[in-house]
Gamma-interferon-inducible lysosomal thiol reductase (Phaseolus vulgaris), 257 residues
Amino acid sequence: MVSRSTTLFLSLLLYLFFFAFFSQSESESDTPKVSLELYYESLCPYSANFIVNHLPKIFTPEFTPIVDVKLVPWGNAKLRPNATFNCQHGPNECLLNTVEACAIDTWPELSKHFPFIYCVEDLVYQRKCNEWKSCFETLHLDSKPIDQCYNSEHGKQLELHYAAETDALQPPHEYVPWVVVDGEPLYEDYENFLSYICMAYKGTDIPKSCTKVSYLAEVKSKPEHSVCDKERVDPTWHKLSSTISSWLHKMNLGDII
């Protein structure tokens, strides 16, 4: 079940959404926004860490009015024949990717679908992903639309749409989480996303936080953050494959694999 601290945080998050969206003046609503896109997969621990421990920094009265946030739950999944697909972390990840896609489709407003996705990813972060359905009760949401979506062809079509969107990225994504600000990927400096938002913002009402040294950090040339690589080779299979290959070569059958 979702912990009490998580429930309290989700309540605070909902309050911040309400405050940020409804306290804006008409002039602020016309302020040019910075786009932030997160391409991720549900069971990648580094995606979960980013969603739970970093992305919520954007949901403040200063940043929410100037940023358009988009979540794309597909990540490193691979398309197979007959429009089927495999996910990097197995069938459960395909399920949760689809569930989160359905949440975005069912509740298009960020203020509705992000708390749900945050709740699910917090359980992933705690290694309790099998308890994801408890998020409906925690957030007082109706589970029926989501159940109907991920159990139907519609859920699959949503994922295929996100597959096409992810595959169309230029430059192509190399791993997840893959964070893009105003069309520019942040690569492994993704945790420093607020700095990039500050630099990309063209409005006159600059958030005061953007003047802080922490948000104006120099972009690192080769930052070292943890990611789920696009082409991940299982060490056990790699070792077994090498052993088999060596054996076949000794038997003069090396061309078979």
About this structure: Residues 1 and 134 are 6 Å apart (CA to CA). The beta strands are 34-40, 67-73, 78-80, 84-86, 175-176, 178-181, 184-185, 228-229. Residues 4-226 form a domain with the Glutaredoxin fold (CATH 3.40.30.10).
